[in-house]
Design brief:
Endonuclease, Chain A; polyphosphate kinase like; 10-stranded mixed beta sheet; 27 strands; 3 domains
Amino acid sequence: MEDANLKAPGLYINRELSLLEFNHRVLEQARDPSMPLLERVRFLAIASSNLDEFFEIRVSGLKQRVELGSSQPGPDGMSPGEQLRAIALRARELVAGQYQVLNEVLRPALQAERLGLVADRGSAAIRKWMREYFMAQVEPVLTPLALDPARPFPRIQNKSLNFIVQLAGSDAYGRNATLAIVQVPRSLPRVISLGKAAGDSEHTLVLLSRVIMSNIERLFEGVEVQGCWQFRVTRNSDLYVDDEEVDDLLRAVEGELAHRRYGAAVRLETAHDCPEPLVSFLRGQFALEADDVYAVPGPVNLNRLMSLYDLVDRPDLKFPAFTPGTPARMTPPTDLFAVIRQRDVLLHHPFQSFQPVTDFVRQAATDPKVLAIKMTLYRAGADSLIVDALVEAARNGKDVTAIVELRARFDEAANIELANRLQEAGVHVMYGVVGFKTHAKLVLVVRREPKGLRRYCHVGTGNYHARTARTYTDYGLFTADEDIGDDLHDLFRQLTSLTRTPRLRKLLQSPFTLHAGLLERIDREIGHAHEGRPARILAKMNALVEPQVVQALYGASRAGVRCDLIVRGVCALRPGVPGVSENITVRSIVGRFLEHSRVFHFENGGEPELWCASADWMERNFFRRVEVAFPVMRTKLRERILEDLEAYLEDNVNAWQLDAEGRYTRLAPGDTGPVNAQQRLLERYAD
């Protein structure tokens, strides 16, 4: 096969459809009876939230391309219009699956555990409770909006809960009442606990939508309520900032945030029994087509079920609690600078604690020998102890620089608030580079020591976010390596001054050297294979879609290089295609923790290289973001990561195998018994 044929559309899986298949794998966790029950409810909520974001970002982008008349296909050969049609078919199957899991699997399972989730009007005691709750807590904050020429259809916020109400009779002014809209404020809790006060269950829960529907007539005294149906609209939520025109990124992002709630509609969800004339009326208000309407047999926002997890105190229905391990060398009151100076330290979260990362920044903030702290912040979370430490460091007179990425999707408002707080404390706050999201995970500490200034570094694959570090798998490396310290110094100088920097010594950086460096290493493996030397690529990431990398991997496979890929989400590559990718395997791990680490291992003829990175193998990560890949140089640490990766390759509990047709098959334990990589790592890294 000629190299040109490696670009054939049939060798590529469509990105959007692959993303929907990942969501199917998440949904299957909710169906899995071996999972703790409340964890299954949580997975259902995650699947719903993922689908929301898919419509807000991916579908909205395709719709914009269609409106602009674009028919340019992607590597898979599908035009935007063809993708939208395929998405509508697969998304409907996913939505049907979500509600089948809720109504036929999870509701009965909850009931069996004496955890009632009210599905209809409920018992007399429940109806009485809902009536009293409605009058005391809900009705005072609702504003029913009758529709007439003086009251046009109201603006509906993105993903908000709403009701369309059909009325009959005369209103207070003697006119015919027809329709009304009830918008539900986000301030009201969507899942409400009745405790044992109503019903026979140990713990009865009711959705706010059920409370409102059961009492809707109390909002329309004097007219007849003929029906009430919930609906929800999903809107385009991708922020647009014109890189050519913007002169103040913070103000530009703030301005766009105000528009996100009312972007162009892309999907309408309605109750399954909503009359067709009302569905058509709503569809007309949002300028949507019939394919954009999803009629659902249940609440229109399943991700609100996430709160059920915290409302119910049943540890037996959740994953067992665990305490992340902490290397003895990193346990307080250790002098972390002395530890890092001695040799590199690698942490694997969440199996190992994130606390040493927080302690590192806090020690730097109070150490009188520390002169400067420089850090990137993509997502930090509310009440971040690391942010507190940066504020304290600035107040202690240290030179503190924070590169805050304002455009971290759906964290923009939080990052604007964070940036303002840091600036008020005297931190030098920069917003990265317009047109290039700063996604690298970096901390640089400059310390005065007897032999001169020394740089201490932390580089990682995940965010500096203590909460997600309990649920996302990531690697973080502490090092005092002089070359890496010099590289970070140059990189931060580049981010703050925008000047050219020398070629980095040990790090690979997007948008400059990471893509070329990766292709160079894949090509090097091909050379080793041709010469009969050891050649293998073992890589773990969240997404693999960049065409040149896919073609390079196909070339490696054809040369006899074994390529084992662990790709959690989107994968455009087709493994196992005769003559093209017979030496490539692709598996996805979906389990208790969100697989988030990016690791790239190259056998290199018997002199292996292993890299960790903040970047997936996607065009945006290679060309439109500031990313960093860092080598793991200590043999012991490199072997430890390889041992972790081999556990993922042995997994037969949470693993799904991708075939040449683009289908994922869930693996099952064989004669050797179940292998759960995440559980194995929990045990390996336990204190």
